Structure formats: C-alpha cells, structure tokens
Amino acid sequence: MASLSREDRRRRRHARVRRRVNGTPERPRLAVFRSNRHIVAQIINDTAGRTLVAASTVEPELRSGRTGTVEGAQAVGRLIANRALAAGVRRVVFDRGGFQYHGRVAALAEAAREAGLEF
C-alpha cells in the first residue's frame, strides 16, 4: 500500500472533524480552507446545504499586499465576522478543515472572535 499524499491525509482528518462538526440554522459552521497563497472562510448551514457568507484573500479589497500571511488571515477573520453579523449570525461552530489549529487558521479564528462571532 502506497503512503498517502499530504492532501489525502488532510482530507481524512477533515472527514473525522466533519463527523462531529455540523452546521445548523441556529449555529452554522465556520469552515476554513488554507492554501499556500490564500485563506478562505465560509459560514455554512449544512441542513439547507447553503453558504450564508464567505470571505477570502482572493477578493479585491484583501488581495493587495501579501495574502498568505497571518495578517491576511486576520483580515479575513474580521471580514467574515462583520458579514456574518450583518446576516444575523452570531454563534457558529468552527471547522478547521483538517488543518492544525495554529498560525493562519488560529489567527483567522481569533480575529473572528474579537470581531464578535461566538464559538
């Protein structure tokens, strides 16, 4: 049996996390995806299968400067929290997407908490 790629290992970890973490209308899921260059956050109602709000370093207002940094992740965290609060979402469950809660993923989560999201 061949060893699994890094991406396959992350997908397995994410599947384990997703067995427990599920977004409901009352507490949607804040899902994070991190690539080498960008970070993406979505707030998802899994019951309806809908993305309520999203934010990413790919967006024009966040694209200036370096996007694959802790500062970029903090900007995305603040933006997703502001958009969520505007959409009437205050409480979420955090889905780290199989990534370690460290660095950019942790920075996004902390910035979202500071901006008013509860999780």
Task: Jot down its keywords.
4-stranded mixed β-sheet, Nucleotidyltransferase, domain 5, 119 residues, alpha+beta, 39% helix, 4 strands
Describe the structure.
- The protein has one domain: Nucleotidyltransferase, domain 5.
- The chain has a four-stranded mixed sheet.
- By secondary structure, the chain is α+β, with helices and mostly antiparallel strands.
- It is globular, with a radius of gyration of 14 Å.
- The protein is built from four helices and four strands; from the N terminus they run H-E-E-E-H-H-E-H.
Brief account:
This protein is of the alpha+beta class and 119 residues long. 39% of the residues lie in helices and 19% in strands.
Topology as H/E string? HEEEHHEH
- Mean pLDDT, to the nearest integer, reads 95
Q: In angstroms, what is the radius of gyration?
A: 14 Å
What characterizes the major β-sheet? 4 strands, mixed
Structural class: alpha+beta
Q: What is the β-strand count? A: 4
Helix/strand layout:
Elements: H1 6-20, E1 29-34, E2 39-45, E3 50-56, H2 60-63, H3 70-86, E4 93-95, H4 104-114
Parallel strand pairs: 1-4
Antiparallel strand pairs: 1-2, 2-3
Helix pairs in contact: 3-4
